[in-house]
Amino acid sequence: MSLLGMAVAVVAACLIGLGFVAQQHAAFQEPLGRILHPRLLLDLLHSRLWLSGIALMIAGQLVFAFALDLVGVAQATPVLTVNLVFALAAAHVIYREPFGARALLGSLTLTGGVALFLGIGQPHGGAPPGALSPAG
User: Fold this and answer.
1) Are 13 and 82 within 8 A, CB to CB?
2) What CA–CA distance (Å, rounded) separates 71 from 88?
3) CB-based contacts of 83: which residues, under 8 Å, 6+ apart?
4) Residue 49's pLDDT band (boundaries 50, 70, 90)?
5) CB count in 10 Å sphere of residue 36
6) Handedness of CA 40, 45, 48, 50 (dihedral sign)
7) Residues 6+ apart with CB under 8 A from 71
8) Which of 65, 74, 89, 122 is most exposed, with minimal Cβ within 10 Å?
9) Do 19 and 55 meet the contact criterion of CB atoms below 8 Å apart?
């Protein structure tokens, strides 16, 4: 397991978590009557904060792809779920939402659950699409 790969996965999680919060904050600033209205999406497309959130999430996914090149799926994916911790911390700063032991425990339980699922499932690489299997 590469320490660099894990650190890169944490950076990816941070970018994705901050991207979620930026998008949520931009949508939160819109009038409440526009929720579930198609016009909301058009308005958000003109919001620099919302677009910045998308850019952060795309950057996070690209950084995560680099992390996958350094470590395997089973090691990097649980780390990516830590984006929830970053999102909760950012929401705490922006909205003064409580971020106590319960929220931290819940987000770390999610990370542990994903790690357990991947540990039991033992994902591994497969053949590229269209490649013939050894039996076929």
Assistant:
1) yes
2) 26
3) 12, 13, 14, 16, 17, 20, 60
4) very high
5) 6
6) positive
7) 1, 2, 5, 6, 9
8) 122
9) yes
Q: Which two tokens stand for residue 25?
A: 């904050």
pLDDT-derived band at 96 (thresholds 50, 70, 90) equals confident
DSSP H helical segments within the chain, as ranges? Answer: 3-28, 38-44, 48-70, 73-80, 83-95, 101-121
Location of structure tokens 């526009």: 34
How far apart CA 8 and CA 68 sit, in angstroms, is 9
Residues 124 and 89: their CA atoms lie apart, in Å, by 33
Q: What does the mean pLDDT of the chain come to?
A: 84
Q: Tokens standing for 35?
A: 């929720």
From CA 18, how far away is CA 86, in angstroms rounded?
7
User: Roughly what angle, to the nearest 10 degrees, separates helices 3-28 and 73-80?
Assistant: 30
| 53 closest CA partner among 91, 82, 92, 80 | 91
- 14-30 tens-digit pLDDT: 999 999 999 988 888 88
Tell me if residue 5 falls in helix, strand or coil: helix
